[in-house]
Amino acid sequence: MPLINFGSILNFAEELETSDHAFYTSAAENPLCADYKEIFEQFAADGKKNKQTILRARRENVTEMILEPIRDFTRSPFHVVCGNSDTMSAEDVLDTARKLEERAERYYTEAALKIKALSEVSRILKTIAKKRAVHRKRLRDA
User: Domain containing 30 — which CATH number?
Assistant: First the structure.
């Protein structure tokens, strides 16, 4: 499905944060992931904050939703099948988490470029991408 405007880009970002938050919340409760519980709880909390930031950006820039359409940007490259993290092994959860973080960093970076005319929103998306890069590094070191 194409991401054709400002609203669809932020709606998809909200969906990503919601699904990632659910994944990390569940992973934190998985007894097989006890060694990584703190990491997953932090990632879930960060996802909640990111979602609030996205919602605030949409609210504050609602008049900008009428901008010219976005071209050549779709959801499909950013789709990752998660599975049920509360029943996965710790290694499978870590592997999926790495994929989620890579996907999110890539999405936010590309989305920021697509809406660079909205400098404040673009900056917000770049900031979230940087946070996700930090998550990726943390997972690499785990």
Answer: 1.20.1260.10
